Structures are given as structure tokens and as C-alpha cells.
Amino acid sequence: MSEHTLEARRLLCPMPVIRTQDKIKTLEKGDKLTVICTDPGALNDIPAWCRINGHKVLETKEAEDEVIVVIEVGNGA
Amino acid sequence: MSRQRKAISLISGGLDSMLATKAIMEQGVHVEGINFFTGFCVEGHTHAIRKKDKEKPKRNNALWVAEQLGIKLHIVDVIEPYKDVLLNPKHGYGANMNPCLDCKCFMVGQALQWIKENDFDFIITGEVVGQRPKSQRAETMPIVQEESGAGDLLVRPLCAKKLPPTLPEREGWIDREKMFEFSGRTRKPQMALAEQYNFKDYATPAGGCCFLTDETYSRKLVDMWQARSDREYDLDDIMLLKVGRHIRPRPNFKMIVGREEGENKYLEGYKKQFTYLRSTSHTGPLVLIDGKVNDDDLELAARLTARFGRGKTADEVTIEATFTDGSVKELQVEPLPPSQLKEEWYV
Ligand code: SF4
Questions:
Q1: In this predicted structure, what is the pLDDT of residue B54?
Q2: Which of B142, B76, B71, B62 is nearest to B107 (CA)?
Q3: What is the pTM of this model?
Q4: What is the pLDDT of residues B236-274, one digit of tens each?
Q5: Rg (Cα) of chain A, in Å, rounded?
Q6: Three-state DSSP state, A70
Q7: How many angstroms separate the CA atoms of B244 and A65, rounded?
């Protein structure tokens, strides 16, 4: 089990989702991925993508101009 | 026991592909969705940019559809390979810069490659014969099959009964009788089927699934190509065409003027790549300059920038121009009077 960060600032949806998807392909079940974005749309889209693809959203945070989504990789990897 | 067959469905986010997918899922086939991001897709982004749209619920329709159907969705970045489709469409463009027929062939071709790599059996689209005057006609149906290379692995459940049987039908993986014979531009059969499947709140995109069907957007794209004498583009270029007012006062440069706070903020991300102007004496927009400007051009750009800010009626406005090398020039200008702002400058 390992922890990873994905920098997706300045990307507009659906690019943060695509990057998340492509990153998760390289990870193992149980790994943690923190995605940092600036497009607030990611707050809806990344969790939606996780729900349908079998990954768990551990946390979503909205800081000043930033959106952070923490994911635990599920079976779909 | 025969193995469960697997299909990939092209999910645009609209109703037709949603219905087509459901029709095949109902036949016991394992279906997953695929969505291609060309850079021009309508989904999401501009809403995220404009502050006033922030209150509206945002959703990516393709993801939403997949969730309603309970299927996986693979989103594929095709920005690079799509360039050739847009720049050299064999079958030409639709009403605007939309190369729909070539685009369909391309996407089905990509899906074909995907099913080969992932050991799936066939491809589904929500196409309907006669739905779109140019790209979805009886004559174009076989073109998509042929040019994509998918041949009879391509199933269009909504109009399957109007088309020759495909391999999945002949092999008995799916039952032709449980598919449909929709045709033409009417949406009634789709609405009825949506009702039957209990689909609610689905998206009804007006023109098409991408910005290339939009007249204003297409005009900006062509203007950019003409001004550069080169049709090469990158994702930033095509994103910027969706943001701000675009004004070309002279052939050699264009101004991108933020219309509100959200857009100004988005444009700030491009400060390193462009010369930009902003008023320091009054509140006003951030303005990017696309193109090479001389002193006289810069003066005009500064007067225009003043025109769009709070100081538009002031005698004098201070505008700061920052160049890509980081150097700064301050200009004291009189805002351009409305009578001198020409309608034809608006791209
Ligand atoms: S509207 Fe855009 S995405 Fe849809 S088929 Fe036409 S060119 Fe392709």
C-alpha cells in the first residue's frame, strides 16, 4: 500500500478525471491517491467516476481556489 | 455454457446512447462505456470558469449516464489524434466546423482498437438513421462501418431493424427482435423508450455533442487559424476560444477580454504565455493579447482595455502592460469612445 499525489491544477474537466483514471491504472488496490485540482467541477466528476469504477473517495476538501480529492484505489484498478 | 458477451458503448452523455446501451444490457450483455475527449466537448469546463454559473449544478453528462446505467466509463483523451480529423476531414464539415461523419468514423475506429486490446466482442452506438441531415443518414451508416474498420461488429440498437444483421445478431449474442427501428428526426420514439426505461432528467444537448457545431465558436477557431496562417492548435488555444470577449481590432493581434471575475481568474493562468493588460487606476478586466503588437497597437489595446473597465467614462485611465519577458510598461490613455469601437472587431 502506498500513497501518491496527482497534480491536476489548471486542468479543466474532464482532464482531471482522465488523469486520475490513467494514474489509478498504474496503482494497486488499497493505494491512496490525492488529486489536487483547481476546477471545482472535479468535486463532482472525480467522485462520480470513482463510484462507477469501484474506487472509494476518502475525503474531499475545498480550500481557497483548490479542490482536493483523496481516493482509495478499489478493485477496478 | 456460452460465455457472457461484452460490448463497449460510445457514451456521449445524450439520450440516444443511453437508450442504446440499456437495450443491449437488457439482453444480458456486459456493457461498459467509452467517452472520447477531443478538447471541443461541451462537458463541464466553461461552467467552471464563469463565476455566475457556479451556483448551477455541474455534472459531466457522460459520467452521469454511466452512473444511471450502472456501468463503468472509460474516458479517453484523443486531443492529439483528433487534430487530423478536424483539419483534414475526408467528408467535409457540417453547418459549422463540425466534421461529424469523419468524427464518427474516428471514434468507432478508436472503440474498435479498444475492444481488441480489452478482449470485448462488439461496439454499440446510439446512431439513428436519418437523425442528422449530414452525418446520420442511410448512406452514412455503412461508411462509418467501413472507414472505422468495425464492419459488422458495430451495432446500432435504436435502428438495428432497419439495417442488415450484424455479427452479434447472426451469432445469436443478441436478439434482433429486441432492438428497434427508429428513423428520422422525430424524438418521440426515444422519449417513449426513455419513459419505459424510467430515465429521467437526461440531457438534451441542442446542437450536438461539441463546440464545433456552434457558429460563434467555429468563427473564432477559423479566425485564429487565419491570423496565424497555420492551423496547428493545442488544448490551451481551443480552451481560450471559450473564454471572454474576443476582439480583433487589427489583423495582427486579438484581445481576449475577461467578462467577469471567474474569467479574469482563468485568464490569469495564461499571464506567462501572453502579453497582458490591466488597469491600475480603475477596476477592470484582464486582457490577453494574442499576436505581435507595436507601440501604436499597444496604445489602441490599452484604450480598449480602459473601455471595458470601470474607468470607461474617465478622462484618463492608467493601463499596465506586462510582456512575456516580465517587463512592464505603463500607459496613460483615454478610454476608446463607443463610437470608435467597431462591431466587426468582435470575432
Ligand atoms: S458534434 Fe462534434 S463530437 Fe459530435 S459527431 Fe459532430 S464533430 Fe463529433
A1: 55
A2: B76
A3: 0.91
A4: 999 899 899 999 999 999 999 999 988 998 899 899 999
A5: 11
A6: strand
A7: 20
Retrieve residue B198's grid coordinates: 424510467
Query: What is the best residue among B34, B98, B143 to mutate for testing ligand 1's pocket, by most ligand atoms within 8 Å of CB?
Result: B98
What are A53's three cell numbers?
A: 469504477
Q: Is the ipTM reported for this complex over the cut 0.90? A: yes
SS3 A5: strand
**Active-site pick, A13, A36, A68, A70:** A13
pLDDT tens for residues B30-80?
999 999 999 998 765 555 566 655 555 568 889 999 999 999 999 999 999
What is the tens place of the pLDDT at every residue in B103-128? Answer: 999 999 999 999 999 999 999 999 99
DSSP code of B313? G
Are the C-beta atoms of residues B6 and B124 closer than 8 Å to each other? no
According to CATH, what is the number of the domain A3-72?
3.30.110.40
Candidates B99, B84, B163, B89; CA nearest to B132 is B99
The owner of cell 470577449 is B245
User: How far away, in angstroms, is B59 Cα from ligand 1 center?
Assistant: 20
| Nearest ligand 1 atom to alpha carbon B85 | 7
Domain boundaries, chain A: 3-72
Give percent of chain A with pLDDT exceeding 90: 79
Nearest to A13 among B48, B73, B77 (CB): B48
- The CATH architecture annotation of domain B6-211 reads 3-Layer(aba) Sandwich (3.40)
Q: Pick the residue from chain A with its C-alpha nearest to B58.
A: A41
Cβ neighbourhood burial of B265 (10 Å; 0-12, 13-18, 19+) = middle
Residue nearest to atom 4 of ligand 1 (CA): B209
Q: Which of B212, B140, B210, B192 is CA-nearest to residue B15?
A: B192
Using DSSP's 3-state secondary structure scheme, residue B310 falls into helix
What ranges do the domains of chain B cover?
6-211, 243-345
